[in-house]
Amino acid sequence: MLRSFSLALARLLAIMLLASLLGATLIRIAPGFSSDEQELNTSLSAQSIQAIRQARLADADVPRYYGKFLISLVRGDLGISQSLNQPVKDLLWERLPVTLKGIGIALSLAWMLGLILAVIAQLANSAWLTFVTDAMSGVFISTPAAVLALVFVILRLPPEWAAALLVFPKIYRYCQNLLQHSYGLPHVLTAHAKGAGRSRILIWHVAPTALPQLLALVGVSISIVIGVLLPIEVICDVPGIGQLAWQAAQSRDLPLLVNLTLVVAFVTVLATMLSDAARRRFTHGWRTAVA
Amino acid sequence: MKALRITAVVLLLAAALAALGASYIAPAGYEHQFREAPDASPSAQHPLGTDDLGRDRFARLLYGMRVSFFLAPLAAAVATALAALLGGLAGYFGGWIERCIMLLVDLFLCIPWLFLLITVRAVLPLNISPEASVVLTFTLLGLLGWAASARVICAGTRDMMKSEFVWLARATGFSGFKLVRLHLLPNLRGTLLAQFWISIPVFIIAEANLGVLGLGVSEPLPSLGSLLRELQHVVTLRPEPWQFVPLIVLIVVVSSFQTLLNKHEVRA
Description:
Chain A has about 290 residues and is mainly alpha-helical. Chain A has helices at about 1-30, 45-60, 60-75, 90-125, 125-140, 145-155, 160-185, 185-195, 200-235, 240-250, 255-290.
């Protein structure tokens, strides 16, 4: 137990560190890294522009920059944002709750919608209803997040709903396939043949076999929600992590981008690990109960 | 379901033909300006009206479809080739090589793809030629979108390496490139094709997202993403329903791909 926990923690740390290093390297090797928007500011003196260039050059050596970053990180110092001139820690502290709230609302709505529609489509066993729910999920899976965000701005609807609508098709399709598979299992067919009711089959025979895989999907869906929230926050002017990442990317703010990559990697890897752990625990518990 | 698939094939063929025949169907070139008629409403001469620079929207839609629908498969080919190489190496060798490559896959998968794409695209120069921006955008899609496919291919290769026919082939002296060329690649063809087809709609949507955010193909070259940028005017200026046509085309094409994909996935 302790060994598997330590291994999982080591994996989480390794992925987070590699993710932030990957972010720093990609940004550094990008051809636009050495240029700074502030150099175009005519009100700045030659010395100020020279100082900006020197500051850029100081970050140009990725291993050196990353080494310094890790030492500061251990001390709890995340550095100063070059573009916003504020401590990165403060910026993350302000923006993270907004995004986490968005993730929570969007995930809850997407799971509710996806799961309910998949169960209804399966239980109703109607080709027409399946066609309608498939078409609905097809439309949203084919719509770019940025465009749906624009539509939501026009309609003045909450941006989290847009994220939920973009994520629900993936949950719906996965749940639908899973339910179809589960309803075809021999023990479910036997229960059906013996005259068990629909709700009894769903709760006692289908749910226990489908739940472990659904729990694994929860972790993946968090990563999907973060991905779609980025353009939504930019278009809908939501002051969250996505908008901050956008601002940091546009102003080539290396300290901010590296920290954001670290935070995003931490949230997604932790979510995946927790959902995997929940899946394993549930499977183990269920097998013990059955035995 | 068969009727739905036939409809999807017909729609995709119609879109491909319209994009291929853009030079013949379009009333003008994508950058030709009708300076006497900027922001014109739909008419016989301009079926979807003109934009604020007087360019024919229908012509731009056809040429934009050409860019998006023909370069997305190229990006998908790049991503699938990378996935085949890395996933194949991991599955073939196993051991620490597999663990290292899978760590790299986990790394790419743990950062949301759109986040990575926007971050990297935003730091690339924006003042490049339109042609270079097209190549850059779709190359980036191909280079960053391989991870999920690599995991599937690795699993497929690993299973195959344990199969009896590969053992037999190895026992008879097959190894290295010969084993890959004669046994692994032909048997992985279904998986590779499925991954290729799955990537195409994903890349079309990713390009559209980048385009709306102004990080896609540069003006005056049109793509579906850059055409969707016009929807921002709908928010701020006036509601013009015909400006939604590129969005409808995008949804129809991607939905058609999704409809056909289920069959490919089953085959794989």
